[in-house]
Amino acid sequence: MIVEQLFADVILPLPLDYHFTYRVPSAFQFRIKIGARVIVQFGKRKFFSALVYKLHQNTPSGEFEMKDIDAILDDDPIIGENQLKIWEWIANYYCCTLGEVYKAALPTGLKLESQTKISLNPDAIITDDLTDKETAVVLLLESRKTASIQDLNQFLGQQSSFAILKLLLEKNAVIVEEQMRESYKPKLVSMVRLNPEYDSEEKLNAMLDLLSRKAKKQEQLLKVFLAETLFGNLKLTEIAKKDLLQIADASDAALKGLDEKQVLEVFQKEIGRIARTHDADLLIKELSEPQQIAHDEILAQFETQQTVLLNGVTSSGKTEIYIRLIEEQLKQGKQVLYLVPEIGLTTQIITRLKTAFGDQAGIYHSKFNDAERVEIWFNVLNEKSGKTGQQYQVILGARSAIFLPFKNLGLIIVDEEHENSYKQFDPAPRYNARDMAILMGNVHGAKVLLGSATPSYETYFNARSNKYGLVNLTERFQGIEMPELFPANTQEAYKRKQMRSVFTPELYNEIASALHNKEQVILFQNRRGFAPFVQCGKCGWIPKCRYCDVSMTYHKNRSSLICHYCGHTTSLVVKCKECGSDEIKTRGFGTEKIEDEIKLLFPEARVARMDLDTTRAKNAYEQLIWQFETGKVDILVGTQMVTKGLDFDHVRVVGVLNADNLLNYPDFRSYERSYQLIMQVSGRAGRKNNRGKVIVQTTQPNHPVIQDVISNDYYKLFSRQMAERKMFRYPPYYRLIKIVVKHQNKERLDLAAMNLATAFRNIFNKNVLGPEYPVVARIQMWFQKEILIKLPRDGKIQEAKTKIMEIINRTKTQPNNSQLIIYADVDPM
């Protein structure tokens, strides 16, 4: 039978706008599948793991050398048809390439890397004209057989060895080849089992009798094995080698002897890296009457709406409603995706999910290592059934979890949907996981539930416009009152010299009262470090980052000045570089300073800090939360991390230390975000016991947003902001696309940005703002400007994006623009 030639269009993990076609060798034609990974050569020496996007028999036109697929990595697809549809939508909507989506979607452990290997040419004649360094490389290769570029760099003690390698290649002394390296390897453990030949008691007794005369240690080890497995309470058929040797207090030699006698067999077994340890009885709590009403309304709304907003006040018990909805999906055999904005939130929520669903619930986020993420990927794909235990039916995760290969998705929950952490900023694709969840719901035929106490204005607008369903939950669980909110005027307190460090009398007294009553306190300041900057008290000089246009933040515990944009670090300056004065003073305050001041003012209090500096380690966040939950910490100082959905029983006082920073940020969303942050952190107070108190420190106590916060009037602020946004053409009435232009030469940047803006204005007229420098105009030596394009919601968004990308691509190819970076950020946050 003659088989027609088959071709495969593949997606490469590169920022390229088009697919590449490869010939499928006849040996692969019945194995290759769409959504599986293959190895292809791209360029002269580079190999990549590409994803099969399309199979066809259309011979590509054009004069070029057609390459074959080198190998097939997967017998079955690791990406389903629905995932590919979602990838295509992401690439089109967010103005990026399928290659960039591929890079973002798959765990690193599933992306093979090409690694250059150097070895001696066996046919080469090594002459005496080699330099010392070339001779050294030859000697290294003689001893090692092969080496990587990194090996050569390290051996020669220099950053790059390419020049030496080039000379050796010209002399035909070495061979350079590309080898594929796969970073994911299944986790194996050595197990011990009984040889099937000894399946009868008679044979076992005979062997034990023989061993008792000739090998006492082997006899003892075999008895322990039998006691722990076949004759034990659990009736196991195998046991981990490590456990067996430890229980029997035996040596590896004894086990090796039994293995050689073919009594016991030592074998390798693949196990999961993710712990499955929930053995307790499962428990799902009964809903209160308001919760039950909200639950029933959600189900009723789902009859006609694919997406529903649950607008529930803080501490109203939204999580319990989620759990009941998840239970109903699991009974139908469906999968559930539960998204949260921050990795730290998974700590408390997974405990509640495990209590309700046991090991059916799992977590997926970027703090897992590569191997763990690959394992969860295959678990969701249901491809490793029986090897790594029960499949996850409920996945709790941050935004990257939307890329998991769900096959039977029934419900997506987006908790705290207003959070801008759902937005991916860099690199591409610059997607919003909340919006992606709604798309996933459409593709999979799943329902989407958005939850928040302070919904984003776009979501609330859609709900009030009947695009989404809307369910309100206005009562806290068990009828607990909302916390009292008080503004504290810092300007007046400073004038009257009533401030205690950075604390107004109102906040200081409430902290003292809470500590006296054995209650807990949360203090929110949205700046980490000790001080935002240091300044010369004589001439006003401020040390700035050499790579970014921003002042350096002082971190006392490291005695360093650190740039929060690029990470550049220098030691604390003791003398002014302008006037030589030693009057260097700290200005402002961050979480580190607040922690120090609290310890001085309340020495008996146990204080902890929750910010990026204290939660870098894998389990640091969980440890902090556990300490606060169990009462080992009295006062928790933190950045935005403390505002997001955490549930603590004994917090009575919350202090917002500087509301002005939030209100005065130059962004059209600043009032919306100020309200959200203050209300969210306020919601941590008085959740289970006495009514909580929230002190908001500000120089503007009569500011409209502060007054709306105090009266808990979300709708009033929403209505006022909607009128302004409609007038000035901002979301939700218009869509925004931000064009970011970068160059290391300021003059080149100015010229290119101005030409771009002119080209955009020729098409979009007055709906183009800029170009303007952002708040920080230079980051890591790259100057940047931004152009904002406002597009009406008239259904022509894709046509407008096509024109935008044409202009961007044309600008990139113009003379002198080779080092210009331009990208489009759709729906910027």
From TrEMBL:
The record, for InterPro entries, names: DEAD/DEAH_box_helicase_dom, Helicase_ATP-bd, Helicase_C-like, P-loop_NTPase, PriA, PriA_3primeBD, PriA_3primeBD_sf, PriA_C
Q: Which cofactor does it need?
A: Zn(2+)
GO MF entry, a single one = zinc ion binding
What enzyme category does the UniProt record give?
A: isomerase
Question: Which residues does the annotation say bind Zn(2+) 2?
Answer: C545, C548, C563, C566
Keyword list, A-Z: ATP-binding, DNA replication, DNA-binding, Helicase, Hydrolase, Isomerase, Metal-binding, Nucleotide-binding, Primosome, Zinc
Top-rank lineage group of the source organism: Bacteria
Q: How does it assemble?
A: Component of the replication restart primosome.
Tell me which NCBIfam families the record gives.
priA (TIGR00595)
The protein's name in its UniProt record: Replication restart protein PriA
> Which organism encodes this protein?
Aquipluma nitroreducens
Provide the taxonomic classification. Answer: Bacteria, Pseudomonadati, Bacteroidota, Bacteroidia, Marinilabiliales
